[in-house]
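User: Hi! I'm working on a homework problem where we have to compare a predicted structure to a textbook description. Could you give me the structure for the chain below?
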Amino acid sequence: MNEHLPVQLAGETLWLLADKALYHPQRRSLLIADAHFGKAAAYRRLGQPVPHGTTQANLQRIDRLLERYPSEQLIFLGDFLHAPQSHAPATLQALAAWRERHAALGLCLIRGNHDSRAGDPPGYLGIEVVDAPLLMGPFALQHEPDAHATHHVLAGHVHPVFHLQGRGRQRLRLPCFVLGERVSLLPAFGEFTGGYAVQAQERHRLFVTGDGGVWELG
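Assistant: Happy to help. Predicted structure tokens:
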């Protein structure tokens, strides 16, 4: 099973990664949508019993991706922090320690709807924060999946998943990439996130992730 799958999009080669991220090898850029750092902390502040350690787990996943896919920049397609409560000391300390280990890595955040509520990340994290779209070659990098007049859109926000029918009444809920003619969607990177079920369409290509691999649905 492939840990990454090269695809042609807008005349360039991109790699769809099994760990719900996208890599542009020519530009040495790693793209992640909807990390939602601090979401569990925000829920705990509201009295909800949710897991601990999600921020560290997500950062460790990024570490593994950076080891495997050499990158000069990491671009977040919106929703870096989940909510104002995500500025919890433990969350920010984990992010700061991670940033210190990757001081030479360029970081950019394209603001999403949750970023508008949560506020920009602290300046000491060294993240360039911009409004959409961020143009990169033939691509418009955005959070919202709105078509761009001249560029192919790479976006997040939707958290696409595909329900794969198993035996009997079993169904697998798998995060997926949706590649369209003008707009393509990345799955949510964050572990503690929901998902929106998408269906196969004639003009879309679906690539699901699971069990350490990524593959195209026929």
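For your comparison, note the following. The CA atoms of residues 168 and 206 lie 23 Å apart. DSSP finds four helices and 16 strands in the chain. Good luck with the assignment!
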